[in-house]
Amino acid sequence: MGRYLGPSCKQCRREGMKLFLKGLKCETAKCQVERRQRNLAPGMHGWRRTRLSEYGVRLREKQKVKRYYGLYERQFIRYFHEAERLKGNTGENLLQLLERRLDNVVYKLNFAPSRKGARQLIAHGHIYVNGRKVDVSDYTTKVGDRIEVKDSERSRKEVKQQLESNPNFTTQAWLQLDREKPAATIVALPTREDVQIPVEEQLVVEICSR
């Protein structure tokens, strides 16, 4: 499966909003979305603001969600079909499934500066779930799961440095964090309010149902 190796800021500029793909760097003056001369869509015709068709509006919503969570098209469609099978609103089910991804949980615990960093942390075997090493970023967590850092000096030092770098970070209500160990427990399922990206999930459902 291919990987996107281009500039992360290019994706934010294309969507016209911060996707926080670079962690804390997105909150500094270096953020290209904040810089007036770079707050345009990428490409030589980025200055043109054409009116999107109905299909284009829905496509942009889907692409926004994919880039925010770091998914490929096949992965995203798999999550969508799973959300369709669940009871309730398909759009909210989809966002809840994406929020429960292990890389997203590790990021929201502030164990890593970004979701990309969280995937690297997981792939290198630094994260354990219920006492077992999990090196798959799209592992779906559930209520009661305990997320721990590998019992080694290097792993704990790396995570604690990240926690100390952002002391004002607040954990969402569905996650219970123990900064000393460091470890965390999932005490509830994420809700629609826990999704930090502004997205109209109904538009995503409409384009995926075509």
Automatic annotation (TrEMBL):
BP terms from Gene Ontology: ribosomal small subunit biogenesis; translation
Coiled coil region boundaries: none
Signal peptide (UniProt feature, chain positions): none
Pfam families: Ribosomal_S4, S4
Domain Small ribosomal subunit protein uS4 N-terminal: 3-99
Keywords carried by this UniProt record: Ribonucleoprotein, Ribosomal protein, RNA-binding, rRNA-binding
SMART domains documented for this protein: Ribosomal_S4, S4
Presence of keyword Transport: no
Single GO MF descriptor: structural constituent of ribosome
InterPro entries xrefs: Ribosomal_uS4, Ribosomal_uS4_bac-type, Ribosomal_uS4_CS, Ribosomal_uS4_N, S4_RNA-bd, S4_RNA-bd_sf
Domain of life: Bacteria
Residue ranges annotated for the RNA-binding S4 domain, each copy included: 100-164
GO cellular component: small ribosomal subunit
Job description of the protein: One of the primary rRNA binding proteins, it binds directly to 16S rRNA where it nucleates assembly of the body of the 30S subunit. With S5 and S12 plays an important role in translational accuracy.
Complexes and interactors: Part of the 30S ribosomal subunit. Contacts protein S5. The interaction surface between S4 and S5 is involved in control of translational fidelity.
Cited NCBIfam families: PRK05327.1, rpsD_bact
Stated family: Belongs to the universal ribosomal protein uS4 family.
Name the record gives this protein: Small ribosomal subunit protein uS4
Organism of provenance: Anaerobaca lacustris
Origin organism lineage: Bacteria, Pseudomonadati, Planctomycetota, Phycisphaerae, Sedimentisphaerales
Name of the gene this protein is made from: rpsD
